[in-house]
Design a protein that fits this description.
This protein is mostly helical and 356 residues long. The protein has 2 domains: 10-207 and 314-343, 3-Layer(aba) Sandwich (Rossmann fold); 231-309, Tyrosyl-Transfer RNA Synthetase. It contains 13 helices and 5 strands. The strands form 2 sheets. It has a 3-stranded parallel beta sheet with strand order 1-2-3. A two-stranded parallel ribbon has the order 4-5. The longest helix is centred in the last third of the chain and has 29 residues, at 315-343. The radius of gyration is 22 Å and the shape is globular. The relative contact order is 0.14.
Length: 356
């Protein structure tokens, strides 16, 4: 089957190019994408337009990060022959649908989105953020609904955006397609709706704490272990993890960040259980646990590093993959846009989109 095979259930998810991808991205969504590309019609978006919300003055950085995210995807194992990998700015239907969907959400509803409020605080934006920063919450609904997926694999912090997307899909179907407001979510398409009501699918680790042991893993906070880090860099970062333990014979907290990471990344669960018991009893020090953790993370990252090396320094190969993916994505996007315009009585003729 190909990425355009309509017999498979469809998913969409992606990443904003704010830098290299890290372990939080992996356990939050990437490993789920790997599994689902075997069974689903997968659309994966690099949301480069959203990066403008806080870096509109750094277009060169955003372009470079867009290519780096694509490299990370290929390194992890996302396959352009089985999935559609594309870039947001190359899909004009998304921008048009963003404008349409913005009419279905009140300003107060957008401002109640907890992810928006959290980002304003974490990024120390105060009241200096652009209107586009708020609009990107609406844009995310268009990123998703343009491709009419059944599900969206995301990290825990993105669930609020998916709920807003579900609200927009319901509202559109009710207002323009005649779907009753009493119709269950799963029945919207059968009732004549254009958009499915997509569900969020959170990865096995919804929120991976960073090596500071406090905040979510994030590039901006400097607490991330990247998928492209060398083995030495990984061990150095693991060694920086603060546990608060004063000496190796003190009883340790068996649920601290070290063991959260071991639970997430170590394949030998019996060994982890043994380390946890000895750690709680003061019979093993932080150093030994950190060494075991570093080895486990590097075992995961070694094949990713090897695949990534094939694409290092080869922007042309990345661009060819992007262009092929965007051609596929535009076909699906234009079909959705045409159907939406007809439903909204905004359709006055046929149009076609060429892409190369």
């Amino acid at each position: 089957m190909t990425a355009s095979d309509s017999t498979r259930p469809r998913i969409l998810t992606g990443d904003t190019p704010t830098g290299r991808l890290h372990l939080g991205h992996y356990v939050g969504s990437l490993e789920r994408r790997l599994a689902m590309q075997e069974t689903h019609d997968c659309y994966f978006i690099v949301a480069n337009v959203h990066a403008l919300t806080t870096r509109s003055d750094k277009p060169d950085e955003i372009r470079a990060d867009t290519l780096e995210v694509m490299r990370d995807w290929l390194a992890v194992g996302l396959d352009p022959d089985r999935s559609t990998l594309f870039v947001q700015s190359e899909i004009p239907a998304i921008a048009e649908l963003t404008f349409f969907f913005s009419m279905l959400l009140g300003f107060g509803r957008v401002m109640r989105n907890p992810t928006i409020k959290d980002e304003i605080i974490v990024k120390n934006l105060g009241d200096t953020y652009s209107f586009g920063f708020l609009l990107y919450a609406v844009g995310q609904t268009a990123d998703i609904l343009t491709f009419r997926p059944e599900a969206v694999p995301v990290g825990e912090d993105q669930v609020a955006h998916i709920e807003m997307t579900r609200e927009v899909a319901r509202r559109f179907n009710q207002l323009y397609c005649g779907v009753s407001d009493q119709t269950p979510d799963d029945d919207h398409l059968r009732a004549g709706g254009l958009f499915p009501i997509p569900r969020a699918e959170v990865g096995r680790v919804g929120r991976l704490v960073g090596i500071d042991g406090v905040n979510k893993m994030s590039k901006s906070l400097g607490n991330a272990i990247y998928l492209s880090d060398t083995a030495k860099e990984v061990q150095k970062k693991v060694n920086r993890i603060f546990t608060g333990r004063q000496n190796p014979t003190d009883p340790g907290d068996p649920n601290n960040v070290l063991f959260q990471y071991l639970d997430a990344f170590h394949a030998d669960k019996a060994m982890v259980a043994d380390l946890r018991e000895r750690y709680a009893g003061g019979r093993v020090g932080d150093g030994e646990v950190k060494k075991e953790l570093g080895s486990a993370i590097n075992a995961l990252l070694d094949p990713i590093r090897q695949r990534r090396a094939r694409y290092e320094g080869d922007d042309q190969a990345i661009l060819e993959i992007i262009r092929a993916g965007c051609a596929k994505a535009n076909t699906a996007a234009e079909q959705t846009l045409a159907a939406a315009r007809k439903a909204m009585r905004m359709h006055f003729g046929e149009r076609s989109l060429g892409y190369r």
